[in-house]
Amino acid sequence: MTERVDNPADAIRLDKWLWAARFFKTRQLAIEAINGGKVHVDGQRVKPSRLIRPGSRLEIHKDSLSWEIEVRAINTQRRPAAEAALLYAESEASRLRRQELVRERRELGVAAPDRKGRPTKRDRRRIQRFTEHGDSVG
Q1: Is 8-137 CATH 3.10.290.10?
Q2: How much is the average pLDDT of 94-103?
Q3: Distance separating alpha carbons of residues 81 and 1, to the nearest angstrom
Q4: Domain ranges of the chain
Q5: Is the pLDDT of residue 138 over 50?
Q6: What is the CA radius of gyration of the chain?
Q7: What is the dihedral of CA 77, 82, 84, 88, to 10 degrees?
Q8: Looking at the chain, which terminus has fewer C-beta neighbours within 10 angstroms, N or C?
Q9: H-helix or E-strand containing 137?
Q10: Long-range contacts of 59-68, Cβ-Cβ distance < 8 Å, separation of 24 or more
Q11: What is the dihedral of CA 45, 100, 63, 68, to 10 degrees?
């Protein structure tokens, strides 16, 4: 199904818009989310090349957070976060749900996932101090 666009400036690829609106750090991450079924347009699962226009309704699920937004503007360039926020309008219910989830996670003390990889030099020194201290106590 090919979409016909009367004015190409009125539409943009979904993956490019998600990147420009700063929902994803790279277009590749946006593509992976779309292909993984984490992004819906007007209630339907779509492909990254789907053209969206102002007025399109998006559902975006990222980690444990979700957004229900309406596209307000099109921008092909990635701009600062303050400008990117002007590209969409989030529904009040979606915003309140997300804020409540963030508040609950903060109260429960659910921290961000731990770093992966090798310990830093500072971490190694702390580990060494801890293990040396532990040996002298016992």
Answers
A1: yes
A2: 92
A3: 34
A4: 8-137
A5: no
A6: 21
A7: -160
A8: N
A9: helix 121-137
A10: 60/18, 60/23, 60/33, 61/33, 62/23, 62/24, 62/33, 62/38, 64/101, 64/105, 65/98, 65/101, 65/102, 66/94, 66/97, 66/98, 67/23, 67/94, 67/98, 68/93, 68/94
A11: 20
Residue for token pair 């789907």: 50
* pLDDT tens digit sequence for 110-121: 665 666 788 899
Residue 4 has pLDDT above 60, yes or no: no
| E strand segments, 4-131 | 12-13, 39-41, 44-45, 51-52, 57-62, 65-71, 88-90
Residue that the structure tokens 């830093």 belong to? 120
φ, ψ for residue 9 (rounded to 5)? -70, -15
